[in-house]
Amino acid sequence: MDSSNSNSQAGMPLRSALSVLANARQAEDVVITNQGSSRVWPLIAQHPLDFHLNPSTMGGAIPFGVGIALAQPQREVIVLTGDGSLLMSMGSLVTVMAAGCNNLTIVLLDNNIYDVTGGQKTAASDLKNDYHGLARSVGFPTVDSFNDLAGWTEGVTRFLQSQGPRFAWLQVDPALADDMKTIQEPMDEQLSRIGHELGC
Question: Do residues 135 and 169 touch, judged by C-beta distance below 8 A?
């Protein structure tokens, strides 16, 4: 599948984009968030199989997702990563393909800034990036791009049911300042909870 949309910088509201995904995820799916998304997702959804990979793990969500996907091949694993995080770990996309993680979905939340550290531009903010082409070039069989909420709402189920691994490039607005103040569940409690849910 290849339904790339316009590369316009206008994005969809982050909370709304994440709500669409929260409504589409299946009860047995693992959702891994990181950086900005780890602050916003808990305001939208609370699920035993949600894991918020922070602090100090920028770029670590996809490799973590690969590990979960390999250890839990009967489950779908959805990883939310920002463009800043992906820029720090582009090689992780190759790792996904090399590992054969067909049960892994990556959702790139691209807002051209570092939400967590104050909204600075990323190194790629002023470049004409083609994350769609990047994912396609390393072999992802399902790659989609969405820059409006209507298209994402209409396409999310089809996307999640397509052949994995999957990569979706979502152009989103920066997170709301108050949303970034979310107090997260302590890491030890998260590890205990998700370990129990996964039978570890």
Answer: yes
| Chain centre to alpha carbon of residue 1 | 19
Give the CA-trace dihedral at 34, 39, 40, 46, to 10 degrees: 90
| pLDDT tens by residue, 132-169 | 998 999 999 999 999 999 999 999 999 999 999 999 99
* Amino acid at the residue 161: Q
Distances (CA, A) of 60 to 6, 192, 196: 28, 19, 22
Rounded to two decimals, the pTM is: 0.85
Superfamily in which the 2-198 domain is placed by CATH? Thiamin diphosphate (ThDP)-binding fold, Pyr/PP domains (3.40.50.970)
Residue with tokens 């693992």: 30
For residue 64, give the amino acid letter. F
Mean local confidence (pLDDT), 48-75: 87
Domain boundaries, the chain: 2-198
For residue 83, give the nearest of 107, 65, 64, 51 by alpha carbon.
Answer: 107
